Amino acid sequence: MELRARAATLAVLALLAAGCADLPGSVGPSPAPSHPPYDPVPADYQAVEDLLADRATAALQGDEAAFLATVDPRDRKLLDQQRTIFTNLQELPLKSFAYQVKQSDRAPDEVRNDGVLFSPQVVEVAQLEQAHRASVANATDMTFVRHDGGWVVGRDRAAPREKYSRPWFGGPVTAAVGRSVVVVTEQDGPTSADELLERVSEARTEIKKKLETVWRAEEREVPLLVDATYNGRPPGDTFDGDDGAAAVTYWVPAAGRRPRTSTSALAGAVIKDNPVATNRLATDERTLRHEMSHVYGPALVPTWVNEGLAEYLSGCESNICGEDERRDQLLTHERAIPNDDEWGDDGAIDYAISHAAVSWLIDDNGGLERFLAFCNDFYLHLPSGAENLHEGTGKALKQSYGITEKQLVDGTWSWFEDLPED
What we know:
It contains twelve helices and ten strands. By secondary structure, it is of the alpha+beta class. It has three domains: 42-158, Roll (Nuclear Transport Factor 2, Chain: A); 162-297; 298-422, no CATH class. Strands 1, 2, 3, 4 and 5 form a five-stranded antiparallel β-sheet that branches. A hairpin with a 2-residue loop joins β4 (136-147) and β5. α5 (193-210) crosses α6, α7 (303-313) crosses α9 and α9 (347-364) packs across α12. The chain is elongated and about 75 Å long. Keywords: Signal. Residues 1-20 form the signal peptide. This is Peptidase MA-like domain-containing protein.
Protein backbone atom coordinates (compact mmCIF):
# COMPACT_ATOMS: atom_id res chain seq x y z
CA MET A 1 0.00 0.00 0.00
CA GLU A 2 2.84 2.33 0.96
CA LEU A 3 4.71 1.48 -2.25
CA ARG A 4 1.64 2.30 -4.33
CA ALA A 5 1.26 5.68 -2.59
CA ARG A 6 4.91 6.54 -3.23
CA ALA A 7 4.54 5.51 -6.86
CA ALA A 8 1.50 7.71 -7.28
CA THR A 9 3.36 10.64 -5.76
CA LEU A 10 6.30 10.17 -8.11
CA ALA A 11 3.94 9.97 -11.06
CA VAL A 12 2.36 13.32 -10.14
CA LEU A 13 5.77 14.94 -9.68
CA ALA A 14 6.83 13.67 -13.09
CA LEU A 15 3.70 15.08 -14.66
CA LEU A 16 4.31 18.48 -13.02
CA ALA A 17 7.90 18.50 -14.25
CA ALA A 18 6.68 17.78 -17.76
CA GLY A 19 4.80 21.09 -17.84
CA CYS A 20 1.95 22.50 -15.79
CA ALA A 21 0.41 24.19 -18.81
CA ASP A 22 -0.74 20.80 -20.02
CA LEU A 23 -2.60 19.89 -16.83
CA PRO A 24 -6.37 19.68 -17.15
CA GLY A 25 -8.06 22.92 -16.12
CA SER A 26 -4.90 25.08 -16.32
CA VAL A 27 -5.27 28.58 -17.88
CA GLY A 28 -2.55 30.23 -19.96
CA PRO A 29 -2.41 33.77 -21.37
CA SER A 30 -5.13 34.64 -23.87
CA PRO A 31 -3.90 34.90 -27.44
CA ALA A 32 -3.81 38.39 -28.94
CA PRO A 33 -6.80 39.16 -31.18
CA SER A 34 -6.23 38.51 -34.86
CA HIS A 35 -6.59 41.49 -37.23
CA PRO A 36 -5.51 40.48 -40.74
CA PRO A 37 -4.50 43.36 -43.06
CA TYR A 38 -7.40 44.74 -45.04
CA ASP A 39 -7.86 47.32 -47.81
CA PRO A 40 -11.37 48.81 -47.67
CA VAL A 41 -13.45 49.12 -50.82
CA PRO A 42 -16.31 51.56 -51.56
CA ALA A 43 -18.86 49.01 -50.36
CA ASP A 44 -17.28 49.14 -46.90
CA TYR A 45 -17.81 52.89 -46.64
CA GLN A 46 -21.43 52.45 -47.69
CA ALA A 47 -21.93 49.65 -45.17
CA VAL A 48 -20.59 51.84 -42.33
CA GLU A 49 -22.75 54.75 -43.49
CA ASP A 50 -25.80 52.47 -43.31
CA LEU A 51 -24.74 51.16 -39.89
CA LEU A 52 -24.32 54.66 -38.48
CA ALA A 53 -27.58 55.83 -40.02
CA ASP A 54 -29.31 53.05 -38.06
CA ARG A 55 -27.39 54.11 -34.96
CA ALA A 56 -28.45 57.76 -35.32
CA THR A 57 -32.08 56.78 -35.91
CA ALA A 58 -31.99 54.59 -32.81
CA ALA A 59 -30.64 57.49 -30.74
CA LEU A 60 -33.39 59.82 -31.98
CA GLN A 61 -36.12 57.24 -31.44
CA GLY A 62 -34.89 56.06 -28.05
CA ASP A 63 -34.32 52.48 -29.22
CA GLU A 64 -31.51 51.13 -27.01
CA ALA A 65 -31.51 47.66 -28.53
CA ALA A 66 -31.08 49.04 -32.06
CA PHE A 67 -28.35 51.43 -30.88
CA LEU A 68 -26.38 48.62 -29.19
CA ALA A 69 -26.90 46.37 -32.22
CA THR A 70 -24.34 48.58 -34.01
CA VAL A 71 -21.68 47.61 -31.42
CA ASP A 72 -19.48 44.49 -31.21
CA PRO A 73 -21.55 42.16 -28.97
CA ARG A 74 -18.41 40.30 -27.83
CA ASP A 75 -16.99 43.34 -25.97
CA ARG A 76 -18.76 43.85 -22.64
CA LYS A 77 -16.77 46.95 -21.67
CA LEU A 78 -17.56 48.58 -24.99
CA LEU A 79 -21.25 47.71 -24.61
CA ASP A 80 -21.29 49.32 -21.15
CA GLN A 81 -19.67 52.47 -22.54
CA GLN A 82 -22.12 52.65 -25.42
CA ARG A 83 -25.11 52.04 -23.16
CA THR A 84 -24.05 55.07 -21.08
CA ILE A 85 -23.69 57.19 -24.21
CA PHE A 86 -27.15 56.15 -25.38
CA THR A 87 -28.67 56.92 -21.97
CA ASN A 88 -26.97 60.32 -21.93
CA LEU A 89 -28.34 61.14 -25.37
CA GLN A 90 -31.84 60.39 -24.11
CA GLU A 91 -31.35 62.99 -21.37
CA LEU A 92 -30.76 65.69 -23.95
CA PRO A 93 -33.22 67.54 -26.22
CA LEU A 94 -31.89 66.09 -29.48
CA LYS A 95 -33.30 67.97 -32.45
CA SER A 96 -31.10 66.20 -34.98
CA PHE A 97 -28.37 63.59 -34.87
CA ALA A 98 -26.38 62.06 -37.73
CA TYR A 99 -22.98 60.83 -38.85
CA GLN A 100 -20.87 61.68 -41.87
CA VAL A 101 -18.39 59.09 -43.22
CA LYS A 102 -15.36 60.05 -45.30
CA GLN A 103 -12.22 58.34 -46.52
CA SER A 104 -9.24 58.42 -44.18
CA ASP A 105 -5.68 57.12 -44.03
CA ARG A 106 -5.82 56.84 -40.24
CA ALA A 107 -4.62 53.53 -38.83
CA PRO A 108 -7.32 51.63 -36.90
CA ASP A 109 -7.11 51.37 -33.11
CA GLU A 110 -6.68 48.00 -31.50
CA VAL A 111 -9.93 46.27 -30.55
CA ARG A 112 -10.41 43.39 -28.13
CA ASN A 113 -11.78 40.78 -30.54
CA ASP A 114 -10.82 39.08 -33.78
CA GLY A 115 -11.71 40.48 -37.17
CA VAL A 116 -10.41 42.81 -39.86
CA LEU A 117 -10.46 46.48 -38.89
CA PHE A 118 -11.67 49.58 -40.72
CA SER A 119 -11.26 53.20 -39.60
CA PRO A 120 -12.86 55.80 -41.89
CA GLN A 121 -13.19 59.42 -40.83
CA VAL A 122 -16.48 59.76 -38.92
CA VAL A 123 -17.97 63.12 -37.99
CA GLU A 124 -20.87 63.32 -35.56
CA VAL A 125 -23.36 66.10 -36.36
CA ALA A 126 -25.86 67.00 -33.64
CA GLN A 127 -28.21 69.82 -32.71
CA LEU A 128 -29.66 70.32 -29.25
CA GLU A 129 -32.97 72.16 -29.03
CA GLN A 130 -32.51 75.48 -27.16
CA ALA A 131 -28.68 75.12 -27.08
CA HIS A 132 -27.86 75.32 -30.80
CA ARG A 133 -29.35 77.41 -33.58
CA ALA A 134 -27.77 75.01 -36.09
CA SER A 135 -26.07 71.62 -36.07
CA VAL A 136 -22.59 71.25 -34.59
CA ALA A 137 -19.99 68.89 -36.06
CA ASN A 138 -17.51 66.96 -33.91
CA ALA A 139 -14.81 64.60 -35.10
CA THR A 140 -14.89 61.12 -33.58
CA ASP A 141 -12.32 58.34 -33.28
CA MET A 142 -14.22 55.18 -34.21
CA THR A 143 -12.81 51.86 -35.34
CA PHE A 144 -15.02 49.19 -36.91
CA VAL A 145 -14.46 45.45 -36.80
CA ARG A 146 -15.87 42.76 -39.10
CA HIS A 147 -18.18 40.40 -37.19
CA ASP A 148 -20.71 37.92 -38.53
CA GLY A 149 -20.25 39.21 -42.06
CA GLY A 150 -20.79 42.91 -41.29
CA TRP A 151 -19.17 45.93 -39.70
CA VAL A 152 -19.82 46.90 -36.07
CA VAL A 153 -18.29 49.52 -33.78
CA GLY A 154 -15.20 47.95 -32.21
CA ARG A 155 -13.83 50.99 -30.42
CA ASP A 156 -15.14 54.50 -29.79
CA ARG A 157 -12.85 57.17 -28.36
CA ALA A 158 -12.80 60.95 -28.25
CA ALA A 159 -10.95 62.41 -31.21
CA PRO A 160 -7.58 63.95 -30.30
CA ARG A 161 -8.68 67.48 -31.12
CA GLU A 162 -8.00 70.82 -29.45
CA LYS A 163 -11.59 71.14 -28.28
CA TYR A 164 -14.94 69.45 -28.65
CA SER A 165 -18.35 69.83 -27.06
CA ARG A 166 -20.00 66.43 -26.57
CA PRO A 167 -21.33 66.36 -22.99
CA TRP A 168 -23.00 63.03 -23.70
CA PHE A 169 -19.69 61.29 -24.53
CA GLY A 170 -18.31 60.02 -21.23
CA GLY A 171 -19.76 59.43 -17.79
CA PRO A 172 -23.48 59.51 -16.85
CA VAL A 173 -25.18 62.92 -17.00
CA THR A 174 -28.49 64.62 -16.31
CA ALA A 175 -29.88 67.63 -18.15
CA ALA A 176 -32.37 70.47 -17.74
CA VAL A 177 -33.75 72.68 -20.50
CA GLY A 178 -34.75 76.33 -20.34
CA ARG A 179 -35.38 79.10 -22.86
CA SER A 180 -32.32 79.18 -25.12
CA VAL A 181 -30.27 77.18 -22.63
CA VAL A 182 -29.46 73.55 -21.86
CA VAL A 183 -27.65 72.66 -18.64
CA VAL A 184 -25.86 69.31 -18.32
CA THR A 185 -24.40 68.06 -15.04
CA GLU A 186 -22.74 64.91 -13.76
CA GLN A 187 -25.31 62.41 -12.60
CA ASP A 188 -23.75 62.34 -9.11
CA GLY A 189 -22.35 65.87 -9.19
CA PRO A 190 -22.46 68.54 -6.46
CA THR A 191 -25.63 70.11 -7.87
CA SER A 192 -28.57 68.88 -9.92
CA ALA A 193 -29.26 70.05 -13.45
CA ASP A 194 -32.51 71.70 -12.35
CA GLU A 195 -30.77 73.61 -9.56
CA LEU A 196 -27.99 74.78 -11.84
CA LEU A 197 -30.51 75.80 -14.53
CA GLU A 198 -32.24 78.07 -12.01
CA ARG A 199 -28.94 79.69 -11.05
CA VAL A 200 -27.91 80.06 -14.70
CA SER A 201 -31.22 81.74 -15.54
CA GLU A 202 -30.87 84.20 -12.66
CA ALA A 203 -27.26 85.03 -13.53
CA ARG A 204 -28.10 85.46 -17.21
CA THR A 205 -30.94 87.88 -16.44
CA GLU A 206 -28.69 89.91 -14.13
CA ILE A 207 -25.70 90.09 -16.47
CA LYS A 208 -27.77 90.81 -19.59
CA LYS A 209 -29.39 93.77 -17.83
CA LYS A 210 -26.02 95.23 -16.86
CA LEU A 211 -24.66 94.74 -20.37
CA GLU A 212 -27.74 95.74 -22.35
CA THR A 213 -25.95 98.72 -23.96
CA VAL A 214 -23.14 96.53 -25.34
CA TRP A 215 -23.22 96.63 -29.13
CA ARG A 216 -23.94 93.24 -30.66
CA ALA A 217 -24.08 92.21 -34.29
CA GLU A 218 -27.55 90.74 -33.88
CA GLU A 219 -30.48 90.96 -31.51
CA ARG A 220 -31.36 87.27 -31.28
CA GLU A 221 -30.96 85.49 -27.98
CA VAL A 222 -27.69 83.62 -27.65
CA PRO A 223 -28.31 79.85 -27.46
CA LEU A 224 -26.27 78.47 -24.60
CA LEU A 225 -24.98 75.08 -23.46
CA VAL A 226 -23.72 74.95 -19.87
CA ASP A 227 -21.61 71.80 -19.51
CA ALA A 228 -20.81 71.00 -15.87
CA THR A 229 -19.49 67.48 -16.50
CA TYR A 230 -16.19 65.65 -16.87
CA ASN A 231 -17.07 65.04 -20.53
CA GLY A 232 -15.76 67.04 -23.47
CA ARG A 233 -12.59 69.06 -23.85
CA PRO A 234 -12.19 72.85 -23.55
CA PRO A 235 -9.95 74.88 -25.87
CA GLY A 236 -6.20 74.42 -25.52
CA ASP A 237 -4.73 73.93 -22.06
CA THR A 238 -7.41 75.99 -20.31
CA PHE A 239 -7.81 73.61 -17.36
CA ASP A 240 -4.19 72.48 -17.09
CA GLY A 241 -1.92 73.17 -14.12
CA ASP A 242 -2.49 74.54 -10.65
CA ASP A 243 -3.74 77.84 -12.08
CA GLY A 244 -6.18 76.23 -14.52
CA ALA A 245 -9.37 78.16 -15.14
CA ALA A 246 -12.47 77.35 -13.11
CA ALA A 247 -14.50 77.50 -16.33
CA VAL A 248 -14.20 78.70 -19.91
CA THR A 249 -16.64 80.20 -22.43
CA TYR A 250 -16.26 79.63 -26.15
CA TRP A 251 -18.36 79.58 -29.32
CA VAL A 252 -19.03 76.59 -31.55
CA PRO A 253 -19.36 77.04 -35.32
CA ALA A 254 -22.39 75.82 -37.20
CA ALA A 255 -21.65 72.67 -39.21
CA GLY A 256 -20.63 73.44 -42.76
CA ARG A 257 -20.12 77.17 -42.16
CA ARG A 258 -16.83 78.98 -41.88
CA PRO A 259 -16.59 80.96 -38.62
CA ARG A 260 -16.62 84.72 -39.10
CA THR A 261 -16.68 87.74 -36.84
CA SER A 262 -20.46 87.72 -37.02
CA THR A 263 -22.25 85.33 -34.69
CA SER A 264 -24.54 84.29 -37.57
CA ALA A 265 -22.02 81.58 -38.49
CA LEU A 266 -22.01 80.24 -34.94
CA ALA A 267 -24.35 77.60 -33.54
CA GLY A 268 -24.15 78.91 -30.00
CA ALA A 269 -22.03 79.48 -26.92
CA VAL A 270 -20.66 76.87 -24.54
CA ILE A 271 -19.76 77.48 -20.91
CA LYS A 272 -17.57 74.56 -19.85
CA ASP A 273 -17.08 73.90 -16.16
CA ASN A 274 -13.80 72.62 -14.77
CA PRO A 275 -15.06 69.79 -12.55
CA VAL A 276 -11.84 69.58 -10.52
CA ALA A 277 -11.66 73.30 -9.66
CA THR A 278 -12.58 74.30 -6.12
CA ASN A 279 -14.47 77.30 -7.48
CA ARG A 280 -16.19 75.48 -10.36
CA LEU A 281 -19.33 77.19 -11.64
CA ALA A 282 -21.49 74.26 -10.53
CA THR A 283 -21.06 75.55 -6.98
CA ASP A 284 -19.61 79.07 -7.27
CA GLU A 285 -21.86 82.03 -8.11
CA ARG A 286 -18.96 84.35 -8.90
CA THR A 287 -17.51 81.96 -11.49
CA LEU A 288 -20.93 81.57 -13.08
CA ARG A 289 -21.44 85.34 -13.42
CA HIS A 290 -17.89 85.75 -14.73
CA GLU A 291 -18.51 83.29 -17.56
CA MET A 292 -21.95 84.73 -18.31
CA SER A 293 -20.24 88.10 -18.79
CA HIS A 294 -18.20 86.56 -21.60
CA VAL A 295 -21.39 85.45 -23.35
CA TYR A 296 -22.98 88.91 -23.35
CA GLY A 297 -19.96 91.19 -22.99
CA PRO A 298 -18.02 93.12 -25.64
CA ALA A 299 -16.11 91.04 -28.16
CA LEU A 300 -13.73 93.34 -30.05
CA VAL A 301 -11.71 94.49 -27.06
CA PRO A 302 -8.32 93.41 -25.66
CA THR A 303 -8.14 90.63 -23.10
CA TRP A 304 -7.52 92.98 -20.16
CA VAL A 305 -10.87 94.67 -20.88
CA ASN A 306 -12.73 91.42 -21.42
CA GLU A 307 -11.42 89.60 -18.35
CA GLY A 308 -11.36 92.68 -16.13
CA LEU A 309 -15.01 93.41 -16.86
CA ALA A 310 -15.96 89.77 -16.22
CA GLU A 311 -14.22 89.90 -12.82
CA TYR A 312 -15.93 93.19 -12.00
CA LEU A 313 -19.40 91.91 -12.92
CA SER A 314 -18.84 88.63 -11.12
CA GLY A 315 -19.23 90.46 -7.84
CA CYS A 316 -15.58 90.93 -6.94
CA GLU A 317 -15.25 93.88 -4.60
CA SER A 318 -11.77 95.18 -3.90
CA ASN A 319 -10.78 92.50 -1.43
CA ILE A 320 -13.02 89.55 -2.33
CA CYS A 321 -11.19 88.19 -5.39
CA GLY A 322 -7.97 87.51 -3.50
CA GLU A 323 -5.96 90.51 -4.70
CA ASP A 324 -5.47 91.55 -1.06
CA GLU A 325 -3.55 88.32 -0.50
CA ARG A 326 -1.15 89.29 -3.31
CA ARG A 327 -0.98 93.00 -2.43
CA ASP A 328 2.76 93.13 -1.77
CA GLN A 329 3.55 91.07 -4.86
CA LEU A 330 1.30 93.24 -7.04
CA LEU A 331 2.76 96.50 -5.74
CA THR A 332 6.29 95.39 -6.71
CA HIS A 333 5.26 93.87 -10.05
CA GLU A 334 6.18 95.55 -13.33
CA ARG A 335 3.68 98.36 -13.81
CA ALA A 336 2.04 97.65 -17.16
CA ILE A 337 -1.32 96.56 -18.55
CA PRO A 338 -1.09 92.93 -19.83
CA ASN A 339 -0.58 92.75 -23.57
CA ASP A 340 -2.67 90.24 -25.51
CA ASP A 341 0.47 88.55 -26.86
CA GLU A 342 1.72 87.89 -23.32
CA TRP A 343 -1.59 87.22 -21.60
CA GLY A 344 -1.56 84.09 -19.45
CA ASP A 345 2.19 83.95 -18.78
CA ASP A 346 1.25 84.72 -15.19
CA GLY A 347 -2.49 84.16 -15.15
CA ALA A 348 -3.29 85.19 -11.57
CA ILE A 349 -1.32 88.45 -11.90
CA ASP A 350 -2.83 89.23 -15.32
CA TYR A 351 -6.36 88.78 -13.95
CA ALA A 352 -5.59 90.93 -10.92
CA ILE A 353 -4.17 93.79 -13.00
CA SER A 354 -7.08 93.63 -15.44
CA HIS A 355 -9.63 93.58 -12.62
CA ALA A 356 -7.97 96.56 -10.96
CA ALA A 357 -7.74 98.56 -14.20
CA VAL A 358 -11.40 98.04 -15.07
CA SER A 359 -12.51 98.67 -11.49
CA TRP A 360 -10.60 101.98 -11.42
CA LEU A 361 -12.10 103.09 -14.75
CA ILE A 362 -15.65 102.22 -13.69
CA ASP A 363 -15.62 103.29 -10.04
CA ASP A 364 -13.47 106.42 -10.33
CA ASN A 365 -14.08 107.58 -13.89
CA GLY A 366 -17.75 107.71 -14.81
CA GLY A 367 -19.38 104.38 -14.04
CA LEU A 368 -20.33 101.27 -15.99
CA GLU A 369 -22.23 102.98 -18.84
CA ARG A 370 -19.23 105.12 -19.75
CA PHE A 371 -16.99 102.07 -19.67
CA LEU A 372 -19.33 100.13 -21.97
CA ALA A 373 -19.31 103.06 -24.41
CA PHE A 374 -15.51 102.84 -24.34
CA CYS A 375 -15.82 99.12 -25.18
CA ASN A 376 -18.29 99.75 -28.01
CA ASP A 377 -15.98 102.30 -29.63
CA PHE A 378 -12.72 100.47 -28.99
CA TYR A 379 -12.44 98.80 -32.39
CA LEU A 380 -12.68 102.19 -34.11
CA HIS A 381 -9.36 103.16 -32.57
CA LEU A 382 -7.41 100.07 -33.56
CA PRO A 383 -4.50 100.85 -35.94
CA SER A 384 -5.05 99.63 -39.49
CA GLY A 385 -3.87 96.05 -39.93
CA ALA A 386 -3.27 95.50 -36.22
CA GLU A 387 -3.97 91.97 -34.99
CA ASN A 388 -3.22 92.64 -31.33
CA LEU A 389 -6.26 94.47 -29.96
CA HIS A 390 -4.21 95.96 -27.14
CA GLU A 391 -2.57 98.24 -29.71
CA GLY A 392 -5.76 100.32 -29.67
CA THR A 393 -5.69 100.91 -25.91
CA GLY A 394 -3.86 104.24 -25.91
CA LYS A 395 -6.04 105.93 -28.53
CA ALA A 396 -9.27 104.46 -27.13
CA LEU A 397 -8.45 105.75 -23.64
CA LYS A 398 -7.66 109.20 -25.02
CA GLN A 399 -10.89 109.40 -27.01
CA SER A 400 -13.23 107.99 -24.37
CA TYR A 401 -11.63 109.12 -21.10
CA GLY A 402 -9.13 111.82 -22.05
CA ILE A 403 -6.33 109.93 -20.30
CA THR A 404 -3.15 108.14 -21.33
CA GLU A 405 -2.25 104.50 -20.76
CA LYS A 406 0.32 105.73 -18.20
CA GLN A 407 -2.50 107.36 -16.24
CA LEU A 408 -4.47 104.11 -16.40
CA VAL A 409 -1.45 102.24 -15.01
CA ASP A 410 -1.08 104.77 -12.20
CA GLY A 411 -4.78 104.43 -11.37
CA THR A 412 -4.53 100.64 -11.41
CA TRP A 413 -1.70 100.60 -8.90
CA SER A 414 -3.43 103.17 -6.71
CA TRP A 415 -6.28 100.61 -6.54
CA PHE A 416 -3.78 98.02 -5.34
CA GLU A 417 -2.41 100.45 -2.76
CA ASP A 418 -5.92 100.84 -1.32
CA LEU A 419 -6.20 97.11 -0.66
CA PRO A 420 -6.00 96.15 3.02
CA GLU A 421 -2.55 95.14 4.21
CA ASP A 422 -1.95 91.68 5.65
